Amino acid sequence: MASRKQHSGPPHRQARLSRGQAAEAREKLAAGGLSHKERHKLVSAVRARDEAASRRSLETRHVIMAVAGTLIAMAVVGAMVGLVPAIHAASGQGTRGTFIVEPQLCVHRCTRTAGSFRYADGETVPDLVYAGSLPLDAHPGTTLPAIRPGGSEFVYPPHGSLSWISDVAIMVVVGCAVGFLLLASTLGLRRRNTSRTGLA
User: Per-residue pLDDT tens for 115-154?
Assistant: First the structure.
């Protein structure tokens, strides 16, 4: 006796409706006169399309939120590390003067050098940060030629500084981390809501 072939594979998926097909299906449902089977088929197809459109809209909002969070975080970090003044100093923009090293309050090794900036006319601005490498024999009272872009709290060596490169790297890393966390949290929340809906 010949054995019957059994077909295996994923279940047949209902074809997705286009926008025009969905509108036509709604018109048919509104007009009535359909059998129970036809009505159930159209309702299921329209509902599936609406749910898919809702998911796409929600995912788009999540991506926009993540991108916005990334840009905001990058802007905040860029302002904190003094990215714009560093770029200006690297291009030679700023007022030239003298940086005066002040006693440092670091417990171990200082990553930033505090001091004051003296303009050519003698005016001195205290509590600024030198974004450059100090000489090995530098000590409180050491004076260094420097440049101060605009009213920045950072001063730089006269030839500029490459600190903007590390500032950009920090800004990108923090921004990407914030964007990833926002996207991951929203996706996790959506999955939890989907699972609760399925159990309901």
Answer: 999 999 999 999 998 888 888 888 889 999 999 988 888 8
Q: Which domain holds residue 56?
A: 19-80+169-199
Pairwise CA distance, residues 18 & 95, whole Å: 63
Same domain as 173, residue 155: no
Number of domains in the chain: 2
Cα–Cα nearest to 116, from 150, 146, 86, 159: 146
Token pair for residue 197? 């809906």
User: Which residue, among 64, 101, 90, has the nearest Cα to 152 in the 3D structure?
Assistant: 90
Considering the domain architecture, whether residues 100 and 153 belong to the same structural domain is answered as yes
Phi, psi of 108 (to 5 degrees): -115, -105
29 and 73 inside one domain: yes
Measured between its terminal Cα atoms, the distance across the chain in Å is 48
